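User: Sequence recovery, please. Input:
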């Protein structure tokens, strides 16, 4: 009887944990302070999937997207206040791994958008990328928010075309004003040939 109760308890705990994970499509974009600022959803075409950014006062460690060992090309990316610097501006079509190094002092993320120029990105009232307003299929995926001083990989299958790379985090300043990393200049272009 005791072993049946333990088995039932384990089954209930596993179901609860699975349910908590399976309902999260990653589509909510929240600010670094934990409040929601926009929403969206997407899945990466290829070996990874992710969407949105989320964090509280303690930013989670890097969660790699996809398998870097499957990449045909690795592109080093530096994230800093307030810039995204890409080692190269282009890569051949195929599996592309972005090795994103957060050299700044704040948490950052890397969102990959296909076919929408930086100046044409749909923004919400707070200057945050409105992922729901992107054309279907434009949101390739992202490397979720990760802390300063870390490197996080995201591997995606990219077709030929023009891409925009964005840090879509927003946070509330001590003054109470909302600060959008995109609005501050964390956006760049990338071409796949």
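Assistant: Recovered sequence (193 residues):
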């Amino acid at each position: 009887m005791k072993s049946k109760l333990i088995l039932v308890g384990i089954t209930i705990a596993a179901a609860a944990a699975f349910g908590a994970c399976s309902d999260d499509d990653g589509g909510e974009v929240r600010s670094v302070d934990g409040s929601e600022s926009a929403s969206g959803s997407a899945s990466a075409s290829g070996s990874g999937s992710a969407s949105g950014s989320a964090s509280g006062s303690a930013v989670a460690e890097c969660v790699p997207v996809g398998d870097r060992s499957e990449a045909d090309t690795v592109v080093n990316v530096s994230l800093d206040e307030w810039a995204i610097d890409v080692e190269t501006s282009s890569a051949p079509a195929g599996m592309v791994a972005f090795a994103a190094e957060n050299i700044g002092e704040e948490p950052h993320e890397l969102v990959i958008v296909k076919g929408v120029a930086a100046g044409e990105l749909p923004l919400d009232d707070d200057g945050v990328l409105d992922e729901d307003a992107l054309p279907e299929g434009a949101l390739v995926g992202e490397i979720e928010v990760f802390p300063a001083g870390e490197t996080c990989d995201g591997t995606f299958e990219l077709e030929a075309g023009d891409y925009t790379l964005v840090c879509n985090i927003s946070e509330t300043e001590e003054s109470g004003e909302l600060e959008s990393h995109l609005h501050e200049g964390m956006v760049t272009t990338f071409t796949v040939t």
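DSSP finds one helix and 13 strands in the chain.
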